[in-house]
Amino acid sequence: MNGKTNKSFTKRLKITKNGKVIRRKSGINHFQAKKSRKSQLNKKQTENFIIKPKLLSRLIDN
User: Fold this and answer.
1) Residue 49 burial by CB count (10 A; 0-12/13-18/19+): exposed, middle or buried?
2) Where does residue 60 rank: exposed (0-12), middle (13-18), buried (19+ CB within 10 A)?
3) Which of 1, 6, 26, 51 could staple 59 via S-S, CB 3.0–4.6 A?
């Protein structure tokens, strides 16, 4: 019997078709006026989230 899926995990992270875990960069919600345009646009990109397979299997119900 598998456990439940961790809902906070599924809301913040996405697993791609090849099994990579993608997350959104932090610091983009507000207070953007004082930041440079370059840093604002850089924060829009996603980045890989490194997580051990054992922990990943515990958070995601397969």
Assistant:
1) middle
2) middle
3) 6
- CA distances (Å), origin 50, targets 7, 36, 60: 19, 28, 15
Structure tokens at 51: 């997580």
Q: How far is CA 44 from CA 7, 39, 55, in A?
A: 23, 9, 27
Question: How many Å apart are CA 62 and CA 55, to the nearest integer?
Answer: 13
Q: Token pair for residue 57?
A: 């299997």
CA angle at residue 11 from 9 to 13, to 5 degrees?
A: 60
